């Protein structure tokens, strides 16, 4: 359950930090598919970033002890953790170049 909550929190935090980074002109979206979504609307971007983790949470509740669902959730959490570390790096660089 904690992984599911982390996943939802990480998805929202990733969306907010990506929006901040792109709005400030410091970073660019690395995922070409999400870049297309952002070009359409930031609202779509936020919807996707929130709905996909919620779908995974729903899958977990439907099949909580299924091994592939658990593997999928753990893998996604590791991926999001690495993305958040990347965000922290560019935030530190942004702060250091701003001063």
Write a brief caption for the model.
This protein is an all-alpha fold.
Strand content: under 5%
Query: How many strands, what sense, and barrel or not for the largest sheet?
Result: none
Question: Could you report the average pLDDT, rounded to the nearest whole number?
Answer: 87
Number of strands: 0
Low-confidence stretches: none
Structural class: mainly alpha
Helix content: over 70%
- For the termini, the CA-CA separation is 41 Å
- How many helical stretches? 4
> In angstroms, what is the radius of gyration?
15 Å
Secondary-structure element order, as H and E? HHHH
Molecular structure report:
- This protein is an all-alpha fold and 99 residues long.
- The protein has one domain (2-98).
- Helix content is 85%, strand content 0%.
- α1 packs parallel to α4 (67-98), α2 (32-40) packs across α3 (42-62) and α3 (42-62) packs antiparallel against α4 (67-98).
- The longest helix is centred in the C-terminal third of the chain and has 32 residues, at 67-98.
- The chain is globular, with a radius of gyration of 15 Å.
């Amino acid at each position: 359950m904690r992984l599911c909550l982390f996943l939802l929190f990480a998805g929202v935090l990733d969306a907010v930090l990506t929006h901040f980074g792109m709005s400030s002109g410091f970073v660019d979206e690395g995922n070409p598919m999400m870049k297309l979504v952002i070009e359409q609307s930031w609202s779509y971007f936020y919807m996707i970033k929130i709905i996909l983790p919620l779908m995974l949470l729903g899958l977990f509740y439907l099949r909580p002890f299924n091994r592939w669902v658990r593997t999928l959730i753990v893998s996604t959490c590791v991926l999001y953790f690495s993305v958040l570390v990347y965000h922290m790096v560019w935030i530190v660089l942004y702060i250091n170049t701003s001063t």
